[in-house]
Structure formats: C-alpha cells, structure tokens
Design goal:
Blueprint lengths: L1 H5 L7 H18 L5 H7 L5 H13 L4 H14 L2 H12 L4 H20 L7 H17 L5 H13 L3 H14 L4 H14 L3 H14 L3 H17 L3 H11 L7 H13 L3 H11 L9 H8 L6 H4 L52 H6 L1 H22 L2 H11 L3 H14 L4 H13 L3 H15 L2 H13 L3 H14 L4 H13 L3 H10 L6 H14 L3 H14 L4 H13 L3 H10 L9 H13 L3 H13 L7 H7 L1
Helix pairs in contact: 4-5, 5-6, 5-7, 6-7, 7-8, 9-10, 10-11, 11-12, 11-20, 12-13, 13-14, 13-20, 14-15, 15-16, 15-20, 15-21, 16-21, 21-22, 22-23, 23-24, 24-25, 25-26, 26-27, 27-28, 28-29, 29-30, 30-31, 31-32, 32-33, 33-34, 33-35
Length: about 625
C-alpha cells in the first residue's frame, strides 16, 4: 500500500509549473504602476472631482508633500477652481523651497492667464488685465529656469502678446540649450521681426552663422542676417555687420553679389568699388594682352565689311536697348551733328533690398512669416549665381562708382569673349565715350549699330565720326540713314561726297545705281551723270543725259548738259540737235540755254536759229557779248 502511494501520477511536470509561475510574475510586473504619482495622474484621463478628492485625501496624510501640492494645484487650475489653485500656490511658497517657489509662480501665471482670457476682448478691463499678465511674465522671466519651463514661458509670453519678452526668452534658450540652437535662434529672429527689432533679428542669424560648420550654412545664415537689416532699411548697419561677420565669405561669389547690391543701394561708391573689384574675377577670363591692346587701338573700317551686315538680320533681346531685328523699326530722324546729353543708364538688374517679411506681415502670422524669411534667404543664395549677370553687375557698379577705366576693362573683356553680344557692345561704346576713349567708342557704336539697327547708335556714329575724321565709319552711318530715308537727297549727296573723299567714285556710282527710282529718279540720274563726268566717264555720263532727255525732252537743263558734253567732244551738230529738241521748253530767262543755242547755231552757220537765240536773250533783257565770250560759255 505504501509503495502505491509513492508512485501516484503527477498533474503537471515540474518544468511546466515553473513556467506558469514565471508567466504570473511577468503579468504582475507589467501591471505594476511605474513612476511617481504625478506621472500616473498626468497619464490618466482628464482631471475630475474624483482625482481631486483623491489628492486632497493624500494631502491630509502628507500636508507638506511637494508632489501632491504641485499636482493638486495643476488639477485645480485645469478644472477652473482658480481660488483653490491660488491657495495651493500660497502653501507652496510656505515650504521655502526654490523649486516649489518657481512652481508656485507658474501656477499663478496659469491662473492669471485664465482670468485674463476670460474677459471679453471688447471689455475695457481686458487691456489692464493683459498688462498685468505681461508684468507677471516679465517678473517670472527674471528667474533662472530649466529648459522645459523656459520654453513654456517663451510660448506663453508670445500668446500673452509679449513678443519682445518671447524674443529674449528664446535668445536665452539658444544659449542655454546649444543642442537645439537652430530652433531657438529661429524663434528669436521671428519675434524680433515681429516687433521691428531688426538688429536682434540679424544677431540671431549671425549666431547661427558662428555655429555653422559648412560654407553653405554660414553663407545662408550670414545673408539672412544681412537681409533682416535690409528689411528695416538699415543699410549702413548692414554694411557694418557685413564687415564684422563676413570672415571667409569675403571671397564668396554669392555673398559678394549681395553685398555689392547692398553697397549700391546704400549709395556707398567706395564699398561698391571694393566689392565690384573682388567680384570682377568671377565675371570672365582675362583676355590675352595682345588682344586686349587690339581692343583699344583705333581701327579703320572698310565699307565692304559693313555692306552685308544688315543683309542677314538676327533677332535677339537684351537688357538695356530696344528690341531689335534686322529691319528698321524707326526712320532715322535724329540730328547728326549736335552733341547729345550723356546719361548713365542702369543696365543690370538689382536684387530687391530684402526678401525677409516685414514686421507688419509678421504680425499677421509669425510662424508663416519666419518660414518665408528663411526660404527667401535660402532661395536668394541658391539662385543668385545661376541667374545674375555678374559681369553686368560689376560693370554697372564701376560706372556708378565713377571708376570708368575699370568699367571699360570689364566691357572690353566681355566683348572679347562674345563679339556678337549687342548688350556688351553698347555698354562698351557708352563707357568708352564717357572715358574719353573716342576711337574705341566709335568702333563699338558702329558694331552695335550694325548688329541692332538702333537709331540712337547710328546717330552716335554720325556724331563722333566727323570729329575723328573717320570717313569710313561716317560713310556707313550715312548709307544707313540714306537707306532709311531714300527721298532725302541731302543724305544722298553726303554719301556721294564721302565716297569721293575716300577716292571711291565707282562705289559711289554703285550706291546711286542701287537707289530706288521713285519720285526722285531724275534727280538721282542727274547726280550719276555729274559723278560720271567728274570720274572721266564721259560715255556713261552721256548715256545718262540721253536717258534723262528722252524722259523729259523739253527739259532745258538736261539738254544743256547733253550739249555741253557733246561740244567738249567736238560734236557741234549733236550738241545743237540736243538743244533744238528742248527749245520748246526753254524760257526767255534761261540765259545759259539761249546763249549756247545761239553760239552753236552761229558755229553751224544757221543764222536764223542764231538770231532766234539772240532774240530770246534780248527779250530777257540780257546784253549781248562778244562771240569769244559766247564760246567760253560752252
């Protein structure tokens, strides 16, 4: 019987029993509340009268417990039992503990906030209560606070319409919590802009610059600080801050562009010249010395190079001139001799004074305004190098600073780099003229005029070329003016006279032959005949005169020209026949016609015709001269 008792079956094996025991222990461990009473109460549901009663009961047991007092005061404040909350604050002060004193201050601030915000905004008492609340926040801010409490105070001060205090608290947070300095400095800058304290807003960005570890971050924060000062129109202060904080950014391209624009906006030509000189090395590569000297030499302009210039028009757009094409958009009407007024034109776009939101916009939405300010500062840095015409900016800055030789050097380099750039040809022409480099100015004006057909450029060529006695350039401008106004015979005569001064009568004849034969067709043929005679081409001249006389048979001057040329070649009969054809159109006062008519008739022994010619002379009251003088007329 005893042996059977010792070998009875087991309900569970030992390892299973141990496993079940361990599971039970784990369940107890997981269910056991952790942390202090404050954490458990805060993690529970919203405060209620039950939780307050529970805490009051504990306080009866431990009336000086800091944990129970702090938690009960918060519960009272959240339930709106403000008088009870103030009573708890008094009990906290009575403990004579610095941590409890700070908690009492925070509790009183919570009560004051609820009391103030409970007053309607239209109630006159609201302003006095708000002022009292702000004074309480200022008193609290004078104490040392741990980082979480200091952050809470900054946020609540901003909500209480104390942005200046919020700015100061965020600045303290940046120094107290270096791990999150970017966040706190950003908040400090926001509220500084909110109240229009632009220097403090800039200081926040400069603090970020000092803490930055990359060039891009330093540049971004530095430019944000400069833009913050610009947004307040503190241009001189911005320039001073740039000198103080630039450091390694003094040779940075994007930074120099911003500072150059800033110096120009502040009307500081000395700083503009300095920044422009530093930025000039980013404009373009330096030309070879020989080529650079060639740009400054006086050049002779051959007509053959100019003629095809307008044959192939090229459309383009540029910043500081008209929209040009291969065809003339305006007829030439400017004076060709007088000195025009010289004006400095702004030919480079400038950066706006600031991309940072103003204080008024910040007051509408502080967070949105600060985000826009940061994005604007970043975008200004990233887009400047890609979109700005650095060479144009440097050129314009030198011009505004009165450093014309440097401006001319920049323009010459750009023309060497791109000889077909209408923008830089015009800039080079302008600055060369202002710098008294007249030969280079003339060369550049002519190249720009041929490329753009700008009437003002052609007028400048017409003005400068005679002063430099450059008939080649003058001829190109005259030809352009004549082609634009073909009915202007004065321009035609000037072109022909210039060709003759250059010893190019054949080119002058080709020019006349190419002119359209409109209402001035006979006048152009007259000039061709006269030029043929002066060039010794009597046959060509005679052909022209015959053509004129055939077109106008009774035109006495045409007949006289034909007769004169035939007479010089000894063809008296042909000369008399030419005059005879125009006899019906001659008047009594055409003295030269009738004298030649009578003399040729006398030489040909046609007395009747000679007497007829003398009769017309007598009718005009002209005294007859001796025959030898008559021959001299022919």
């Amino acid at each position: 019987m005893a042996a059977n008792m010792t070998q009875r079956p087991r309900i569970a094996s030992p390892w299973l029993v141990m496993l079940l025991a361990a599971v039970v222990l784990l369940i107890f461990y997981a269910a056991w509340p952790r942390g202090g009473l404050r954490e458990r109460m805060m993690s529970s549901a919203a405060p209620s009268e039950v939780s307050v009663a529970y805490l009051e009961a504990w306080l009866r047991v431990q009336p000086a417990s800091p944990e129970f007092l702090a938690l009960l005061g918060e519960q009272y404040a959240r339930l709106g039992r403000l008088d009870d909350a103030l009573h708890i604050a008094q009990r906290m002060d009575a403990l004579n503990s610095e941590p409890m004193r700070r908690k009492a201050i925070l509790l009183r601030l919570s009560v004051a906030e609820q009391q103030t915000f409970a007053i309607p905004a239209s109630d006159p008492l609201r302003a006095a209560a708000s002022a009292k609340l702000r004074a309480q926040f200022e008193d609290a801010a004078s104490l040392a606070w741990p980082t979480p409490d200091l952050q809470s105070l900054a946020q609540r001060a901003a909500a209480a319409d104390a942005p200046q205090l919020a700015m100061q608290l965020y600045a303290r947070l940046a120094a107290q919590d270096p791990a999150h300095h970017t966040q706190w400095n950003g908040q400090a800058s926001r509220y500084a802009l909110f109240i229009g304290d632009y220097p403090h807003a800039a200081d926040a960005w400069f603090r970020e610059q000092d803490a930055a570890t990359t060039l891009d971050a330093r540049r971004r924060n530095f430019l944000a600080g400069i833009h913050a000062l610009q947004s307040g129109n503190l241009l001189n202060e911005a320039l001073a801050a740039a000198d103080q904080h630039a450091g390694a950014l003094a040779d940075d391209k994007e930074t120099l562009i911003v500072l150059l624009d800033l110096a120009r906006a502040a009307n500081r030509p000395d700083l503009a010249r300095r920044y422009a000189t530093a930025l000039a090395r980013f404009a373009s590569a330096q030309p070879e010395p020989r080529e650079a000297r060639a740009m400054l030499r006086y050049a002779s302009f051959m007509p053959a190079r100019r003629a095809p210039a307008a044959a192939q028009p090229t459309s383009y757009a540029y910043m500081d001139g008209p929209q040009a094409s291969g065809t003339m958009r305006e007829r030439f009407g400017a004076s060709t001799r007088g000195w025009g007024a010289v004006h400095v034109q702004r030919v480079a776009a400038t950066t706006p004074a600031s991309n940072v939101p103003t204080a008024s916009s910040a007051k509408t939405d502080v967070k949105a305004g600060a985000k826009k300010a940061t994005k604007a500062a970043n975008s200004a840095t990233t887009t400047t190098a890609a979109n700005r015409d650095v060479a144009g900016l440097v050129f314009q800055s030198f011009v505004e600073a009165g450093d014309l030789p440097s401006a001319q050097k920049i323009a010459s380099e750009q023309v060497e780099k791109d000889p077909h750039s209408a923008v830089w040809l015009k800039r080079l022409a302008q600055v060369a003229e202002w710098n008294n480099a007249s030969p280079l100015a003339l060369k550049s004006w002519l190249a720009y005029a041929e490329m753009s057909n700008d009437p003002a450029a052609w007028a400048n060529v017409l003005r400068i070329a005679p002063m430099l006695d450059d008939d080649h350039a003058y001829l190109a401008a005259l030809r352009h003016a004549s082609q634009a106004n073909p009915d202007n015979l004065k321009l035609v005569d000037d072109v022909v006279a210039t060709y003759e001064r250059l010893g190019l009568p054949d080119e002058a004849l080709a020019f006349l032959a190419a002119l359209p034969r409109g209402a001035q067709g006979n006048a152009i043929d007259e000039r061709m005949g006269t030029l043929d005679e002066r060039a010794g081409k009597d046959d060509a001249a005679l052909a022209v005169y015959h053509r004129l006389q055939a077109h106008s048979p009774e035109n006495a001057p045409y007949a006289l020209r034909t007769a004169s040329l035939l007479y010089r070649h000894g063809d008296y009969k042909g000369a008399f026949d030419a005059l005879q054809k125009a006899r019906g159109g001659a008047k009594n006062d055409d003295e030269a016609f009738w004298r030649n008519y009578a003399q040729l008739a006398r030489l040909l022994q046609q007395d009747k015709a000679a007497n007829d010619g003398y009769a017309h002379l007598l009718a005009a009251g002209v005294a007859l001269r001796r025959p030898r003088r008559h021959r001299a007329i022919l």
